[in-house]
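Reviewers of the previous submission asked for a worked example of the structure-prediction workflow described in the proposal, so we include one complete record here. The input consisted solely of the amino acid sequence. No template or homolog information was supplied to the procedure at any stage.
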Amino acid sequence: MTARVLVVDDIPANVKLLETHLLAEYFEVLTAEDGMTALDICDKTQVDLILLDIMMPGIDGFEVCRRLKANPKTVNIPVVMVTALDQPEDRVEGLKCGADDFLTKPVNNMQLMARVKSLLRLKMLTDELRNQAGGSVSFDSLDDQKFGPSTLEERGLTLLIDGRATSHERIAKSISEIADINAISDPEAALFEAAETPYELIIINDNIAGCDPLRLCSQLRSREATRFVPILIMLPPGEEQHIVRALDIGVNDYILHPFDPNELYARSLTQIKRHRSSEKLKASLSKSVELAVVDPLTGLNNRHFLDAYMDKLISRSKRRNTPISLLITDIDKFKNVNDTYGHDAGDEALKEFARRLRSTVRGADLACRFGGEEFIVLMPDTTQQMALQVAERLRQSIEEQPFDITGEGDPLPVTTSVGVTCFNPEYDDSKTLLKRADNALYEAKSQGRNRVVLKEVA
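From that input alone, the workflow returned the following structure tokens.
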């Protein structure tokens, strides 16, 4: 894994030590000796992760983190605070500012590298989702939210896997303002529950008798339903090796016993918000993909999708020597509908036409809006005679029942003309096939409309 890491510290020896460790892992390293310099670097240069000291001249690390999280250009850069401060209130303050973690000097190198790599993997994943979604959704800035009950519009559904009722109560009390908690002590039952319920956070305490908490984390990560659900593990102090392994297998965060309720609150809040932001990105990506291939008015596939699908279908037809038929159809005198009743009524007519077209064709057929009032149906494994039957069935379904699109008065009589052709592997590609179907449609119009015309290879 390669990435650009910014080390911010006013003590050269500290900078050199971190730089040496990072270079040994083949990271590119930038350095800054104060907060303002760090902000300037982040504004002008792509930075993938920041290791940030707190006690510095000018503005301290807390203020640097606040400004980073308030800037849309830098809000998504992971920040790890590396400092000599080791009190729980310092960690909480760092998390409130938007920091992703808080490591105390002297830093354990294995723990540092595990955390750096874990955060970079998360950033790479979310950056890729954001790029694919076209940047339409951005992560919420933690700094934009107040640290209190109002930080989430809805409490996050949280699964707590804990072997003791007493710790159940203390953990639940610490995060009750931001989480609806389901506590389970049996790890096997917890695995089934996690797979069946859309949790936004899973907290695992290491006090479960006969259960390796890291194996439980690994099982959660290996299952499709829980692969991307944030996991926070609670471990005793002095368990550096377990922390490193936990981060390596995909645990998102950890907290050490005896835990501070405010720190658990802040870490849980961070994970729930990050999960929701990630889900927004995935939903945005799914919507972007859908918009690229689906006509938003009718819900049918669009021409872009048709072009790609047709080329693949033609290649398959040539390999297997199977027939393909294609029909192209449009609404007769559609301009009159728009001119007489308005474009809103015209849109309703197109939607109703698409609905009847969809109900007429088979599940294996591809119905698309080709443009304007023209529609195409591509029918794999379909002979000429079968295609003519489908076309005639469509024509009749349009003619026999007028369109109720105006909301007043009598329904509007509508007819359609249809051109049909079949693929000839010796002569055709997608362009010639479409052209011949279009010629058949033109003939249907010329012969008086409301009819089906077949055009065969000359």
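The radius of gyration is 31 Å. We consider this example representative of the routine output the project will generate in years two and three.
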